[in-house]
Amino acid sequence: MGTTRATGQRAYLACAMAAAAAEEAAEVRLNGAYAGGFIGKPGRVEITRFLKPGRNTVRIEPFAVEKVQVEVH
Question: Which of 4, 33, 39, 57 would bridge with 9, disulfide CB 3.0–4.6 Å?
Answer without folding.
Answer: 4
